[in-house]
Model the fold of this input.
Amino acid sequence: MSLRIVVTVKYVPDATGDRHFADDLTVDRDDVDGLLSELDEYAVEQALQIKENADDAEVTVLTVGPEDAKDALRKALSMGADKAVHVEDDDLHGTDAIGTSLVLAKAIEKAGYDLVISGMASTDGTMGVVPALVAERLGVPQVTLLSEVSVEDGTVTGRRDGDAASEQLQAQLPAVVSVTDQSGEARYPSFKGIMAAKKKPVESWDLSDLDIEAEEVGLDGAFTKVESVTERPARTAGTIVKDEGEGGKQLAEFLAAQKFI
Amino acid sequence: MAEVLVYVDHVDGAVRKPTLELLTLARRLGEPVAVALGNGAADTAATLAEHGAVKVLTHDAAEYAEYLVVPKVDALQAAYEAVSPAAVLVPSSADGKEIAARLALRIGSGIITDAVDLEAGDEGPVATQSVFAASFTTKSRVVKGTPVITVKPNSAAVEAAPAAGTVEALSVTFSDQATGTKITGRTPRESTGRPELTEAAIVVSGGRGVNGAENFAIIEALADQLGAAVGASRAAVDAGWYPHTNQVGQTGKSVSPQLYIANGISGAIQHRAGMQTSKTIVAVNKDEEAPIFELVDYGVVGDLFDVVPQLTEEIKARKG
Done:
């Protein structure tokens, strides 16, 4: 029986671009280039490694997002994922974490799964709660924030590095896993991979395919509301000195004047 | 007065500082009722009472240490049902955010994570968040259900506010999901004797310019003179020079100390995301074009191997 792996990925505005908000206080996706969230590349990588170590496995990459989000799916397919599902619907605009977890859980169930792998957080919203929410909705174990992960004989094990301790975790499949940026460098797509990706299947589903009502998602269905957005004022220019042999002492003088020493 | 549930982060009964900060914020919204779980739960009561907890709900069971997250969600849900609070506040740790999110889903509420401030509003608590690598500040509200909000460390001052702190045993029935993910081993972090990175008043960080694990000794020496925590940029962590638990930035910790000293760090967006809300920023870097200098209150263009030891010596000399 084939191991069915679903990797959830997000298409995000480039963190090195000039990110800002649209008039309705949602993330502006038009003026900044988008891409596969860097932290989700680690999830794709771990899925591919698990597949390579399994007798028989299939990796489906899943995203919820606008038309352009197909770029994120293409990137994951060119890295080596087998097929993709794109959940796209105008009514999804402005969906929050609770709503996103609903759409993902329904889509994961429809796709069929033994193992779900996510990144540790998105690089735009940075909440890091969607994997736990998806596990809660699916009613399966959450094995999250892993720096090391392996799957053998229907059991997933991994290491979760917390502030106070490093924990070894273990759960039976099906399960939801999330991996950190410490889990291992993501591979670059090869030329062959990029060419092959063009022929891989990408299915498009909308809300009706998932039996979700429009009121359950989107800006109006959200459980939270952003009331105001303020750009952080630029820091006032500081003093810059060139070290001519006394740089450390000059810095100490500054710290003393500021009463830090 | 409405009650506000506060989830307690503690180690064997020793309450961690972010929980005391939460009590300060909770008192703006109502009467804090604390929930302490696991080994030493009852030992937290005295400290929590000193900082404003009117009640401390406690429960201990082996499940909290043996299984991941879900037993704590079950317990927090039991507390929620017993108290019917106006809001639920949880520290923004890895466990805290996951516990809060699952609780919110179960009780039909919205969740806000990583708040840096919290005020009472006409329509419920208003949470301030710092977003897009701290280049924007947003104010948000939970508009459905009881607000569940996680709050970052250093978001409020710890204040003494003596209250009753009556200890009550919480009755918890674990769900079928509680034993899904087993914790088969735990290796506690070795204490460095330095302050917690996210809680420290001063952070001294090293980056690519430190150029080797052994050279972090000069960063640590400066930190120790200042009683500071040690941070590292992603480049230094990826190179294996310093542990990931000390990483400051988008995929590490975000810190907001009184003073941040960046040594040999260029100041890429990934790093800025984790430190640009620091009150005073100082940098030492060889490259005068490094973007970190756009953020600083004081910057030294120079070799950190000259400047940092001189600074450390000077501080030592001034202390006498």
